[in-house]
Amino acid sequence: MKILGITGGIGCGKSVVVKVLKTMGIPVYDSDDASEKLINLSQNIKKKLSEKFGSVIYNGNVLNKLIFSSLIFSHSRYLSFVNSVIHPEVLRDFFDWKMKQEGKLFVGIETAILFESGFDKLVDIIINVFTPLNIRVRRLKVERKLDKSAIFSRINSQLTDKERLFRSNYTLVNDDKYPILPQIENLFSILGS
Fold this sequence. Notes:
By secondary structure, the chain is α/β, with parallel strands linked by helices. The chain has a single domain (about 1-190), classed as Rossmann fold (3-Layer(aba) Sandwich). It is built from 10 helices and 7 strands. The strands form 2 sheets. The chain has a 5-stranded parallel β-sheet with strand order 2-5-1-6-7, with helices on both faces. Strands 3-4 form a two-stranded antiparallel sheet. Helix 3 runs antiparallel to helix 5. The longest helix has 24 residues, at about 75-100.
């Protein structure tokens, strides 16, 4: 079983690539969804975040996303701390999930922070999804209703496009000009699925 790491900056359209992979019968673990669930379910995460940020970080058993995102995207030291708490839990959850994917030739893990989290060391093939910055900004304004300041604080907290391109095995271009499906089909003809 080969593990595909699917990465790309916020707003690049990784989810589009994941949907195509799933229709091809390739299961993909969504680390963002897993993080969101684990932040609210893991007693270990809740305890550490509450100790660091105070009880205001949770509304009962649910993370206060507004306070949380304002903290982590405005202070890099907070982001580092949060990552050190959440990444080990996500990694354990991923390996539990992977064990249930018996008989699959490929499985994937989707994460914008593949390199920053160290998960790149655990995958066999890194697939980067690249989208020009102006398209990413437009998508994030429309789809996530983020203002420019929020968009750039998130983009600037991630690896640069250039670095991601350099460190990946393959790059798919999702720029509204080149269809993504033929690129994925070409990639898997190379990979031999």
